[in-house]
Amino acid sequence: MELLRKPILTEKASALTEKSNRFTFQVDPKANKLQIKQVIEKMYGVNVLAINTMVVVGKVKSRNTKGGLVTGRSPKYKKAVVTLKAGETIDYYANI
């Protein structure tokens, strides 16, 4: 099971990182906070102070086709916001 799926690199997540040393990841929906903390500390070598998780519901999307209106939904996912100890940082591109 791959616990950390990918980092979330949006404007809002970048502002959180600059303002309050918080990093955002998309994680496995079955993962709990303790598992996420262990993986992040092991993978990046940092001290995690707090983790906030949330389930992001997918957007409803629709489009017009020859057959009529087609509606669907983008998939839901779980997001984890990780607060690190002051002075520590995560380099997303170090493990590529």
Automatic annotation (TrEMBL):
Family annotation (Pfam families): Ribosomal_L23
Any GO CC annotation of this UniProt entry: ribonucleoprotein complex
Keywords: Ribonucleoprotein, Ribosomal protein, RNA-binding, rRNA-binding
Molecular-function GO term, any one: structural constituent of ribosome
GO BP terms: translation
InterPro entries given in the database record: Nucleotide-bd_a/b_plait_sf (IPR012677), Ribosomal_uL23-like (IPR013025), Ribosomal_uL23/eL15/eS24_sf (IPR012678)
Cross-referenced PANTHER family: 60S RIBOSOMAL PROTEIN L23A
The protein's assembly and partners: Part of the 50S ribosomal subunit. Contacts protein L29, and trigger factor when it is bound to the ribosome.
Function as written in the Swiss-Prot or TrEMBL entry: One of the early assembly proteins it binds 23S rRNA. One of the proteins that surrounds the polypeptide exit tunnel on the outside of the ribosome. Forms the main docking site for trigger factor binding to the ribosome.
Family: Belongs to the universal ribosomal protein uL23 family.
HAMAP family the UniProt entry points to: Ribosomal_uL23_B
Protein name: Large ribosomal subunit protein uL23
Organism of derivation: Pedobacter ginsengisoli
